[in-house]
Amino acid sequence: MLEVIAHEGNVRELRLARPPVNALGPDLLRALRQQLQQAINDDVAGVVLSGAQGIFSAGLDVPSLLKLDRAAFTVAMDDFFGLFAALAGSPVPVVSAMTGHSPAGGAVLSIFCDYRIMAEGDFRVGLNEVQVGLVAPECVQNALRRLVGAYRAERLLVAGSMITASEALGFGMVDELKPMADVIPAAVAWLQALGRLPRQAMLKTRHIARAGLRAPFEAGFDLDAFVAEWYLPETQAVLEALVARLKK
């Protein structure tokens, strides 16, 4: 479900390994949150989040989440948004090695990281929550605005657009495109380069620079409001229709 790989320079890779599309179900969300915290506790030089060839993560595992009762769903979403808060507030840098398609939650994981390297080719990324009846909360919208600017973020979010890797690079949603085989090595190398800088100066500067990313979580995230939106009749109908299409 989640592979933990050590690289030179005290860099740790957390590789999503939940076939076929690395969907973020309750168990994977909990494992990823715990392993990120473990890496932080171990004071690694940096963390790489990666996926399988062709797919980084397809986002939330909607079919499994729809089967949960409200209490269990709330726990899963606490891990989901807790993971984003941990990425935003991580005291060590994190790079997203986007090894393919990255819709919805996959894209959200990436925008909370320090740096994003995506596989070049016919891959897409985007926050398509609107298309499945969900609302991207302020903490997510803020993270996207930080990368692409307020107006571009509005257009992408309101339409739930899925854009190509090359468009994402042009918009600033990803930082580099690499051949598939080079995505993870490039992510590791980026962190190794940071590791050669004076550590305390780099980490303190980074902490200041990322204050705006942390701010919505420090102000308090309204998990109950997100859960309530999930159970709205319109949202449930759209999600059920999505699951029916996936079964076909």
Q: Main sheet: which strands, in order across? A: 1-2-3-5-7-10
What is the correct CATH architecture? Alpha-Beta Complex
Q: What is the average per-residue confidence, as pLDDT, rounded to a whole number?
A: 96
The radius of gyration is 17 Å
Unreliable segments (pLDDT under 50, ≥5 consecutive)? Answer: none
Distance between the termini: 25 Å
Number of helices: 12
- The amount of helix comes to 40-55%
Tell me the name of the CATH homologous superfamily: 2-enoyl-CoA Hydratase, Chain A, domain 1
CATH class: Alpha Beta
Question: What is the structure about, briefly put?
Answer:
With 248 residues, this protein is α/β, with parallel strands linked by helices.
Structure description:
With 248 residues, the chain is α/β, with parallel strands linked by helices. The protein has a single domain (2-195), classed as 2-enoyl-CoA Hydratase, Chain A, domain 1 (Alpha-Beta Complex), CATH 3.90.226.10. It is 53% helix and 17% strand. The protein has 12 helices and 10 strands. It has helices at 26-41, 62-66, 70-89, 105-111, 138-148, 150-159, 165-171, 183-195, 199-209, 211-219, 223-230, 233-247; strands at 2-7, 11-16, 46-50, 54-55, 94-98, 100-103, 115-119, 124-126, 163-164, 176-178. The strands form 2 sheets. It has a 6-stranded mixed beta sheet, sandwiched between helices. A hairpin with a 3-residue loop joins β1 and β2. α1 (26-41) runs parallel beside α3 (70-89) and α5 (138-148) runs antiparallel to α10. The radius of gyration is 17 Å and the shape is globular.
